[in-house]
Amino acid sequence: MSKDKTNSAILIVLVAGIIFASIRIIAHLYKAQKFLNQLSIMDSLPICFSINFPTNRIHVFQNDTICWAFSAGVFLPKIYLSTGLIQLMTVEEIQAILKHEEYHCRQFDPLRNLIINFLSDSMFFLPACRRLQRNFQVSSEKAADQFAICCGSSPLELSEALIKLFRVRNQVQKFIFVSFSQGNLVDRIETLINNDTEIESNNSTD
Hints:
Elements: H1 2-38, E1 58-61, E2 69-72, E3 78-82, H2 83-88, H3 91-106, H4 109-122, H5 127-150, H6 155-168, E4 178-179, H7 185-205
Parallel strand pairs: 1-3
Antiparallel strand pairs: 2-3, 2-4
Helix pairs in contact: 1-4, 3-5, 3-6, 4-5, 6-7
């Protein structure tokens, strides 16, 4: 009898977790779409934008006070950049950020982020799920940084862009979006600096 009660209790917790996670996901999706609909999207892109990615999936929105770059969209991810970020960055840094966000879109990271958050919320009683959430965020950001470097951006440009955003610290973080400044910034900058050192040493050897 006690075993049946234990199984019933576990089932109730699982069902409650799934219901809670579903409600939270729906609420976040609604808020995210409402936020995106309220953005003042510019009609044309700055001429400095040069990226192997559909231009109709790159949006610059009018906001000079917030410096923000992120990817959003579950099945057709798009890149969003604020005018404040464009004003803050150099052309090379903007290109690096675009390549970084391109990786997130190509890997469908907003969707993967959504799934991992759902699992983490529905199985809130398992610490491993929270660790999975953190590890995904760290690994996906580092992978996007590496993709930008492979596409021609220098580690120094990415590091400088991260440092600028770290100093500004005025971004609105929403879990449904995959933001350029997510993850442990210090860890990412250290990794980029190490990459830059390796590139320089390889060049000097050649």
